[in-house]
């Protein structure tokens, strides 16, 4: 196995489960936002769903190793309310990751000297901070019955860094070039 | 909550977690199959990832209810070997769902008279049987260093029914019309 320590491995598995479910519910909530007349909030959900896919894929590749099954325990948000409620679920999930989950996972990876996990958790933590802010902005708009104003959303395919309207020359988190960003 | 019974609710949450992780790993394994020179096996992974998204989305919508967090425990497969190994992970996961998980979940939903969950578990169970067979066929090819032969893969967007080369006039599982099938 690419990871030597059981605790870091367990946290990678849990983070993989959490990111996979976040990816999935953002796609579901995007469909609901579209139907409710918020195409830009739908676009934001779809773009951030891709960022969560980047995180899940990174964790999966750090776990690496032989083909084997595992039981995964992870947090997720549920609910099929209005978009303003779904955005609250998104904010709650992101804030849990920013304030509790990823700081502890990152601290553990550093403590256990697991370099791959450290990078994967760091990438996710930095993106989730931005996701929490963007979902709060979207919710402020939805509360007033308005869509969020944006042209495109750009996602770094290496670390999930997320930015509105224009990609930076270099990703501030992982350093990848502007041309690599995926546009939504 | 749309589901009255705690056990059926727990099984829906677990199935949602399992399907979300299956969706995610099939996308990862698709990228690996593409790199290994198996574009049709990659296409099969991508199409079946969409079927798992349909299942996850169905379970999520049966859970429905208010915005709230939950801790989810679910099975998943891991591994970053060659495509022939990744397909073994896919087969193991699908067979667990076909032989153990979904029959018990479906039986419980019937026992607890949870109609929405019964339909959602039934749809998934029927699709997973086909997935297990298709992944076995793909693995037989990969073992000989060959790609699987197929033109397109068709997925029913309502139940996840999966079929190669041509969609049926009506979905044999949920009855949806041919035109609704998503082509990969
Ligand atoms: Fe994430
Ligand atoms: Fe996020
Ligand atoms: Fe980046
Ligand atoms: Fe499924
Ligand atoms: Fe399946
Ligand atoms: Fe169907």
UniProtKB/TrEMBL annotation, chains A, B:
<keyword id="KW-0249">Electron transport</keyword>
<dbReference type="Pfam" id="PF02915">
    <property type="entry name" value="Rubrerythrin"/>
</dbReference>
<dbReference type="InterPro" id="IPR003251">
    <property type="entry name" value="Rr_diiron-bd_dom"/>
</dbReference>
<dbReference type="GO" id="GO:0016491">
    <property type="term" value="F:oxidoreductase activity"/>
</dbReference>
<keyword id="KW-0813">Transport</keyword>
<feature type="domain" description="Rubredoxin-like">
    <location>
        <begin position="151"/>
        <end position="184"/>
    </location>
</feature>
<dbReference type="InterPro" id="IPR024934">
    <property type="entry name" value="Rubredoxin-like_dom"/>
</dbReference>
<protein>
    <submittedName>
        <fullName>Rubrerythrin</fullName>
    </submittedName>
</protein>
<dbReference type="InterPro" id="IPR048574">
    <property type="entry name" value="RUBY_RBDX"/>
</dbReference>
<feature type="domain" description="Ferritin-like diiron">
    <location>
        <begin position="2"/>
        <end position="146"/>
    </location>
</feature>
<dbReference type="Pfam" id="PF21349">
    <property type="entry name" value="RUBY_RBDX"/>
</dbReference>
<dbReference type="InterPro" id="IPR012347">
    <property type="entry name" value="Ferritin-like"/>
</dbReference>
<dbReference type="InterPro" id="IPR009040">
    <property type="entry name" value="Ferritin-like_diiron"/>
</dbReference>
<dbReference type="GO" id="GO:0005506">
    <property type="term" value="F:iron ion binding"/>
</dbReference>
<dbReference type="InterPro" id="IPR009078">
    <property type="entry name" value="Ferritin-like_SF"/>
</dbReference>
<dbReference type="InterPro" id="IPR052753">
    <property type="entry name" value="Rbr2/Nigerythrin"/>
</dbReference>
């Amino acid at each position: 196995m690419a990871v030597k320590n059981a605790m870091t491995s367990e946290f990678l598995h849990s983070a993989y489960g959490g990111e996979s479910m976040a990816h999935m519910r953002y796609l579901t909530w995007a469909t609901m936002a579209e139907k409710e007349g918020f195409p830009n909030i739908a676009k934001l959900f779809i773009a951030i769903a891709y960022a969560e896919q980047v995180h899940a894929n990174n964790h999966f590749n750090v776990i690496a190793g032989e083909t084997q099954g595992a039981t995964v325990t992870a947090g997720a948000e549920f609910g099929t309310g209005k978009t303003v409620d779904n955005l609250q679920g998104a904010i709650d999930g992101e804030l849990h990751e920013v304030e509790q989950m990823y700081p502890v996972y990152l601290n553990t990876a550093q403590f256990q000297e697991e370099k791959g996990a450290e990078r994967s958790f760091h990438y996710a933590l930095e993106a989730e901070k931005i996701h929490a802010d963007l979902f709060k902005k979207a919710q402020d708009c939805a509360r007033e019955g308005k869509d969020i104003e944006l042209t495109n959303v750009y996602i770094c395919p290496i670390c999930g860094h997320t930015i509105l309207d224009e990609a930076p020359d270099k990703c501030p988190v992982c350093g990848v070039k502007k041309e690599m960003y995926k546009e939504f």
